[in-house]
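Researcher: Structure for this, please.
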Amino acid sequence: MRRRSLRLRLLVTFGLSTLLLSSVFVTITFIGIQHVLVNNQQQTDLRQSYVNAALIRSTLYTSPPDLANQLNSIEQATNSSVLVHTHHQWLSRSNGAATADVTPSIIALVDRGHVVQQTLDVQGRVIFVVGVPIPAVETQVFEVFDLGGLENTLRTLVKLLGLGALLTSFIGLAGGLWVTRRAVRPIERVSEAAVAIADGDFTTRLSITRSDKEVQQLTESFNSMVSRLVERLERDARFASDVSHELRSPLTTLTTTTSVLQQHRDELSEAGRESLDLLTADLAIFQSLVDDLLEIARSDAGAAPHVIETVPAVELIRQAARSAAQRYGLPVPQIIVDPDVRDPSVSVDRRRFERVMTNLVSNAERYAHGVVAIRLEMAQDQLIINVDDAGPGVVPEERDQIFERFYRGRAANDRGVVRGTGLGLALVRDHVAAFGGTISAMESPEGGARIRICLPVSEEFAQ
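Model: Predicted structure, token format:
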């Protein structure tokens, strides 16, 4: 399963946290402001209702016919609707008043002498109803205040707070982007340096800048680790090179002695001839092992740089196959070129590429009765080189392991089989990787093994 990046997770965390905090702050602020505004408005309206009720009582005492005019004056002055109720009937009301705004339950409570204040939603209108009893004249005064203006104010406030929350979230997201970039960038530099080192660039180091203490400590520790690793690799490579060089002199002596014994082979007994054959075979393996160790030591130490040149691929493979066959006295393998392969060129080191083909031809001869064919194909911008044999093949669980150093598979435990050193395919893999290609083992159409090499075609010759 593909993992999400640390930067993305931190960025999402910052953004969501900022949005959550902004939302909580906006909610608390709105609830508080709403409570204050509504409560203040209701208290103001309630006090005004007491004043208006006193005016209405005075009008009923002194000049009842002027009640309607008084109610209209109150409506204009307070922007409210006033209704007067007495003996279960509506005595009078202002021009904008509607009896439907006052519910029977409110009327009943006020009729029993209670002052009532209630907020109602009538057909989408929010109103504040205040009922004040006037026992002296057995009358109840109801005043209806429209809270639409306050509701509009609150809706505007919600929009402003919402915009503020979004703005705060974007600011938090931008801050999170800056923080995550600053926090994750050192990790990315370490990862990039580790990839470069894994690809063989041992000169890679992290630059030490004026950064945080933790980042500087990480940089210094990483550089120290790489330096020690390079020293260890160079020491191991020098050791392998020194040992290989020291072995060449006695090996040469043994090879010369074996050649002399071979000239007098007929003078030896049957047991002596068998011992001589075993010695000759083991010396050949020993010689190959020393050569391979020297090659690996030079490659690991960087003492043998690749001489990369762009050459026609088909002709290069033909020459390498002929050279490999001549070296071991074998027939030249058949080379089959797919019609799609016109005239591609690859960038390789000729000597090392010849070593690649020689090792593959040698392995096929030792373990699989020789190469059946070398088939060339094209896949996008890559040249595919398939080296097929008709041997027993390579079991699936060993197809990756055969390219490891000193791995010889099932042949390692069988002295009746011509044994290799276990370094040939490892060298092949290293050389192919140096050319920018890949190598893998699979099943051949002939039933044997197929070693597939994929090399990038040079851009100026890419098809």
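Researcher: Any notable elements?
Model: The chain has three domains: 6-154, 213-301, 309-461. The chain is about 55% helix and 15% strand.
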